[in-house]
Write a structure and sequence with these properties.
By secondary structure, the chain is mainly α. The chain has two domains: 38 residues; 114 residues, no CATH class. The longest helix has 46 residues. The radius of gyration is 26 Å and the shape is elongated. The N and C termini lie far apart (92 Å).
C-alpha cells in the first residue's frame, strides 16, 4: 500500500482519538459543573438549616411585622451599618440576596434553587420588602440579588398554576383527619 494511504489512515486515526478525547473532556466538565453546583446548593441550604438561621427565619415569620410598626425600629434601616442584634431579619435578607447573586452569576442554576425554595422566597420577599424599601430611600440599589430571585420565584410559582412541574403517575393520598379537622 502506498505511503499516502497510511498517512491518511494515521491522520484519520489521530482525528478520531482527538475527537473522542474532546467528547470525554466535555462530559467530564459537565459532571464537574453539576458536582460543583450540587456542592454550592448543599452548602447554601445547609447554612439555612442551622439553628441560628432557623431562629432568624422564625423571627421574620412571627415578630418582624409587629416590630415594623415601631418608628425607632424602622429608623435602624437608615443607618450605614445596620445593627444585626436589633435587626436579625438582615440575616434572612442577606441569605436570599446571596442566593440571588449565585443565580445571577451563573454559579447555580435557577431551576435548582426554585424547585426547592420558590414558595419561601416569595413569602419572605413579601415580608421583608418594606425593610428593603426603607433602605432604598436614598436611591441605593440594595439587595438586588434578593429582588431578582424573588421576581424569578414569582414567575416560577405562577407557571406551576398552569402546568405541573413534574408529571408522573400520582398515587391518591387519603386524609384520614380531614373530617375531624373541619370541626375546628
Amino acid at each position: 500500500m502506498p505511503y499516502e494511504f497510511w498517512s491518511a489512515a494515521a491522520a484519520i486515526g489521530t482525528f478520531i482519538v482527538i475527537a473522542a478525547t474532546a467528547i470525554a473532556a466535555i462530559i467530564q466538565l459537565r459532571h464537574l459543573r453539576a458536582n460543583n453546583e450540587l456542592n454550592a446548593v448543599l452548602a447554601v441550604f445547609g447554612k439555612k438549616e442551622t439553628p441560628s438561621m432557623q431562629h432568624h427565619f422564625s423571627y421574620v415569620r412571627n415578630e418582624f411585622s409587629t416590630k415594623m410598626k415601631e418608628p425607632s425600629f424602622r429608623s435602624g434601616f437608615r443607618e450605614a451599618h445596620i445593627d444585626r442584634a436589633k435587626h436579625p431579619e438582615m440575616y434572612v435578607i442577606d441569605f436570599y440576596d446571596q442566593i440571588g447573586q449565585f443565580v445571577l452569576n451563573g454559579l447555580v442554576s435557577e431551576r435548582s434553587i426554585l424547585m426547592q425554595e420558590a414558595y419561601l422566597i416569595t413569602a419572605f420577599w413579601d415580608l421583608l420588602k418594606p425593610a428593603i424599601a426603607i433602605m432604598r430611600r436614598d436611591g441605593g440599589d440594595y439587595y438586588l440579588g434578593f429582588e431578582f430571585i424573588a421576581s424569578r420565584a414569582n414567575v416560577f410559582v405562577e407557571s406551576l398554576k398552569h402546568k405541573p412541574l413534574i408529571t408522573f403517575g400520582r398515587t391518591p393520598i387519603q386524609d384520614p383527619w380531614l373530617e375531624i379537622d373541619r370541626q375546628f
